[in-house]
């Protein structure tokens, strides 16, 4: 179950961050923050090749005892970070990818909105709904 | 918590209020925010409020559930009515007026609330203070099935009284409001000042204020009126309507509104027809929307770009967040542009929102863009809209979408096919490939398309190819370069190989190069040399093909341009073909006189080969059948050592005569050999004679022989002297050849030969240098190609 989903802008400030309501939401925020370093590391590692050849899905950024953090970066250097509960029987990579894909789609939908100026915090209700979708659906499908 | 019995009006009202307070739709309201506002608006003392909250159990739970909220509202009503607050009073107090919620902002609002209440009382069906929707009674009667809707409708009506309770209701209320409005001719709305407290309900307030002009006021809210009001909203005039939108200006609204209202009253009445689907766009509305659409985009089938739509809807003064949400709902295909349908839906949503209706979470069916046709889908849309809309407002939207039949194909897609989204998203996630593709500048460059399959052509024009490579991805780079590199290596190899065959092949390749028209001077340079060589090759292969040169010891040849000599020689002579052809025959004449007449016939052909063979040291001879002849010559030489001088002299004239008889080209060669070592020629003559048996000696052989002769002439002089002596003897033995050539001629001819020899030497040197130049150029081109290959990767 994805316990936290975050959309980080190019300048590394959060555009949207939602967690499963728990007490340790701040911890998730902190994990996302620390994962940004790993994201940059991965991006620069494959930065030698042309940008086009770079894989969007970054994979597991780093695991902790309870959680795993996955990363995904778009071509516009907008990063998606997902914190997943490790107790879940390991989510397959494909599922994580599909979740990120849905997240990416939702993000592009938000971008398409002319009333949304890039760089603003994402407050769209649809984004909230969509976030619930990928995070919940993805995990549920796996757990079942 | 005792059971709570609410009258219909109360039920409706409470549910409306609850939905109003329930911002996040979580079915529970935190004890803050709007709830507090609401309670404050109830104009109750704080302690009473606290007591109410305590009683309803909210303090216990920490939040307001629906039941708690209802109880609280009931208690508010109780308190407002003056009854003591007790839990029992919830149910015991009968005919409790609806709780009053008054905004503290405006005195007028309170008055308005009062007026509303009076209106409601006038209605008779409602005891609530809140001005009931004029048509509420009718609404109630008319549509039992729409009970869930009506509370909302009524709540809408009521809401104007309570500025705090801004309508966050579902859409269904709108048509009801219209209808109510129509059927509510009077409403005791004598009081003008509409409490324009909240932006949400100010329109309502306005409508309510003037009952006589209530219609007009309503017009301010319902979409049809917007036709005028929107005009104002969009532009200027009925400032009243504009003012209605703004809570600030409340004063002047009434007067102006009356004017506007009158015009829209009729429309409002007409609006009443659309009863079932609150979100359905009426004809007038649609027409209005279409007109507005035309102002932005004349083509009804075209799109309104997002920026234009943004400007347009920003004029509605709705918060950006809500506009963003409206956009998300209405932009069905998520393309950033609005079609006519999408625009109408968005406009309708904006109107509804301005009127205070809550924005739905999902696009109502009737608002869904008609992807098929306006006419077809309109019919289709109406029915499902009506059919689907039977449940409570909250349920209506979700029930609509599944119940929607075939209205919009994409909608089911969106709803159901997450897999489809997956596929789409896969494509989108593979946008990197897309961007890759897009970033490729002119991948369909015809030149590149042409070049790739013909790598040979690429070689000479590496600059051009490099340019094309820069445009392509790395994968493409390999294609042109690999064949190119291969070609270059081949060329270099070929050029370095001394064999005529390989050179010929190189020349053929060069033919390909020279045939390519589209390339620059670089290839031209090569091409020139190549063409020159090609000219040679063009002739030599034709002529030399029959006599294959394989037996010729290539490694033994230090100079690769042995062939060049021939060709350059032929070029210099200007008689390429003749020269090449003539060379073989040129030599034989020399040995002819020394040999038996039999081979004479062959000698013209074999002469060169023979001579070269013979002229060259015995080293070359072993490969040829002439080897044996030398032994004969040696025998002769041994026998005729004494007659060397004479023989030479004799031979010279003979040779000279022969030379003269033969081609001048051949004479050059002969002269060359003669100039070097006359004995050699003499020796070669018998060798040639002996060689007469052999078929046409390949011209390269003679050429090589000659080259070799140059190199080895001197060392072989001693060896050949005897042979020459033998030859001389042999020649001398042949009386057939006249020896009438004078010594003067001989001297001249000798000088000529020497000059020609130097010419050939220089020509050969030139050809060799050309070869080296060609090699270097190819290397340069290959290096440049490699550099270009490396360059894009170095760019990050």
UniProtKB/TrEMBL annotation, chain A:
GO terms for biological process: endoplasmic reticulum to Golgi vesicle-mediated transport. Its main location: cytoplasm. Keywords: ER-Golgi transport, Transport. The keyword Protein transport does not apply. GO terms for cellular component: cytosol; perinuclear region of cytoplasm; TRAPP complex. Pfam families: Sedlin_N. Belongs to the TRAPP small subunits family. Sedlin subfamily. It comes from Catagonus wagneri (Chacoan peccary). It is found in: Cytoplasm, Perinuclear region. The keyword Transferase does not apply. CDD domains: TRAPPC2L. This is Trafficking protein particle complex subunit 2-like protein. The gene is TRAPPC2L.
UniProtKB/TrEMBL annotation, chain B:
PROSITE patterns: EF_HAND_1 (PS00018), EF_HAND_2 (PS50222), EH (PS50031). Residues 318-353 form the EF-hand domain. SUPFAM superfamilies: EF-hand (SSF47473). SMART domains: EH. Residues 10-113, 285-369 form the EH domain. GO terms for molecular function: calcium ion binding; SH3 domain binding. The keyword Nucleotidyltransferase does not apply. Residues 671-681 have a biased composition (Basic and acidic residues). Residues 157-168, 574-584 have a biased composition (Low complexity). Keywords: Calcium, Coiled coil, Metal-binding, Phosphoprotein, Repeat. Residues 115-126, 205-214, 407-433, 506-543, 563-573, 612-623 have a biased composition (Polar residues). It comes from the Eukaryota. One of its GO terms (biological process) is endosomal transport. It holds the Pfam family EH. Transmembrane segments: none annotated. GO terms for cellular component: clathrin-coated pit; cytosol; nucleoplasm; plasma membrane. This is RALBP1 associated Eps domain containing 1. It comes from Catagonus wagneri (Chacoan peccary).
């Amino acid at each position: 179950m994805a316990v936290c989903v975050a959309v980080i802008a190019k300048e590394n400030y959060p555009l949207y961050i939602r967690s499963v309501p728990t007490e340790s939401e701040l911890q998730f925020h902190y994990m996302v923050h620390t994962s940004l370093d790993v994201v940059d590391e991965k991006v620069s590692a494959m930065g030698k090749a042309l940008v086009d050849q770079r894989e969007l899905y970054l994979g597991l950024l780093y695991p902790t005892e309870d959680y795993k953090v996955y990363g995904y970066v778009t071509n516009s250097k907008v990063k998606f970070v997902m914190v997943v509960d490790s107790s879940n029987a390991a989510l397959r990579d494909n599922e994580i990818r599909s979740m990120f894909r849905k997240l990416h789609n939702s993000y592009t939908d938000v971008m398409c909105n002319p009333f949304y100026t890039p760089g603003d915090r994402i407050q769209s209700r649809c984004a909230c709904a969509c976030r619930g979708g990928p995070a919940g659906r993805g995990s549920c499908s796996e757990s079942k | 918590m005792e059971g709570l019995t609410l009258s219909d009006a109360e039920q409706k009202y409470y549910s409306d209020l609850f939905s109003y307070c329930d911002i996040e739709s979580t079915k529970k309201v935190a004890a803050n925010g709007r709830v507090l506002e609401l309670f404050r608006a109830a104009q109750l003392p704080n302690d009473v409020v606290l007591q109410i909250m305590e009683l309803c159990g909210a303090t216990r739970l920490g939040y307001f559930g629906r039941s708690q909220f209802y109880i609280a509202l009931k208690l508010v009503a109780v308190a407002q009515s003056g009854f003591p607050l007790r839990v029992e009073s919830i149910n015991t107090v009968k005919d409790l007026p609806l709780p009053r919620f008054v905004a503290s902002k405006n005195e007028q609002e309170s008055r308005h609330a009062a007026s509303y209440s009076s209106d409601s009382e006038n209605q008779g069906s409602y005891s609530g203070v809140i001005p009931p929707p004029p048509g509420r009674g009718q609404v109630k009667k008319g549509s039992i099935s729409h009970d869930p809707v009506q509370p909302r409708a009524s709540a809408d009506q009521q809401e104007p009284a309570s500025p705090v309770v801004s309508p966050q209701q579902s859409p269904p209320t709108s048509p009801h409001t219209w209808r109510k409005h129509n059927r509510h001719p009077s409403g005791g709305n004598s009081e003008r000042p509409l409490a324009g407290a909240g932006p949400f309900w100010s329109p309502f307030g306005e409508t309510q204020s003037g009952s006589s002009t209530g219609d007009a006021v309503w017009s301010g809210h319902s979409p049809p009126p917007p036709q005028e009001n929107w005009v104002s909203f969009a532009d200027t005039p009925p400032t009243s309507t504009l003012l209605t939108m703004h809570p600030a200006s409340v004063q002047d609204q009434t007067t102006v509104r009356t004017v506007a209202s009158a015009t829209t009253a009729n429309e409002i009445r007409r609006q009443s027809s659309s009863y079932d689907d609150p979100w359905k766009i009426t004809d007038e509305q649609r027409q209005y929307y279409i007109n507005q659409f035309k102002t932005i985009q004349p083509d009804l089938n075209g799109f309104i770009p997002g920026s234009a739509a943004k400007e347009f809807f920003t004029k509605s003064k709705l918060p950006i967040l809500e506009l963003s949400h409206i956009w998300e709902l209405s932009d069905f295909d998520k393309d950033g542009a609005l079609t006519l349908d999408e625009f109408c839906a968005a406009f309708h949503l904006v109107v509804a929102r301005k009127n205070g209706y809550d924005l739905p979470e999902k696009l109502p069916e009737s608002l869904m863009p008609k992807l098929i046709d306006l006419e077809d889908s309109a019919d289709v849309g109406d029915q499902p809209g009506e059919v689907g809309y039977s449940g409570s407002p909250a349920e209506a939207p979700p029930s609509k979408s599944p119940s929607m039949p075939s209205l919009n194909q994409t909608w089911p897609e969106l709803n159901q096919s997450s897999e489809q989204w997956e596929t789409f998203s896969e494509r989108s996630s593979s946008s990197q490939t897309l961007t890759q593709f897009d970033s490729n500048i002119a991948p369909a460059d015809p030149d590149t398309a042409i070049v790739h399959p013909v790598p040979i052509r690429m070689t000479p024009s590496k600059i051009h190819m490099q340019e094309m490579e820069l445009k392509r991805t790395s994968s493409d780079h390999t294609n042109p370069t690999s064949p190119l590199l291969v070609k270059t290596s081949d060329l270099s190899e070929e050029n370095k190989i001394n064999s005529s065959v390989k050179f010929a092949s190189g020349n053929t390749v060069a033919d390909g190069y020279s045939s390519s028209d589209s390339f620059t001077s670089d290839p031209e340079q090569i091409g020139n040399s190549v063409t020159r060589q090609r000219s040679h090759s063009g002739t030599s292969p034709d002529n030399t093909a029959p006599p294959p040169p394989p037996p010729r010891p290539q490694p033994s040849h230090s100079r690769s341009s042995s062939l060049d000599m021939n060709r350059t020689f032929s070029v210099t002579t200007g008689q390429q073909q003749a020269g090449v052809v003539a060379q073989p025959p040129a030599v034989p004449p020399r040995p002819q006189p020394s040999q038996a007449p039999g081979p004479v016939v062959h000698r013209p052909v074999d002469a060169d080969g023979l001579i070269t063979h013979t002229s060259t040291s015995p080293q070359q001879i072993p490969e040829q059948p002439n080897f044996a002849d030398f032994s004969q010559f040696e025998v002769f030489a041994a026998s005729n050592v004494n007659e060397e001088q004479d023989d030479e002299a004799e031979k010279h004239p003979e040779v000279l005569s022969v030379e003269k008889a033969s081609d001048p080209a051949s004479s050059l060669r002969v002269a060359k050999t003669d100039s070097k070592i006359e004995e050699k020629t003499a020796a070669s003559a018998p060798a040639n004679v002996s060689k007469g048996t052999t078929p046409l000696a390949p011209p390269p052989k003679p050429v090589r022989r000659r080259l070799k002769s140059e190199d080895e002439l001197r060392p072989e002089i001693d060896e050949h002297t005897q042979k020459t002596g033998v030859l001389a003897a042999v020649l001398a033995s042949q009386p057939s050849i006249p020896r009438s050539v004078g010594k003067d001629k001989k001297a001249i001819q000798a000088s000529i030969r020497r000059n020609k020899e130097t010419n050939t030497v220089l020509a050969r040197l030139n050809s060799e240098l050309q070869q080296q130049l060609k090699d270097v150029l190819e290397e340069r081109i290959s290096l440049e190609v490699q550099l270009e290959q490396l360059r894009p990767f170095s760019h990050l």
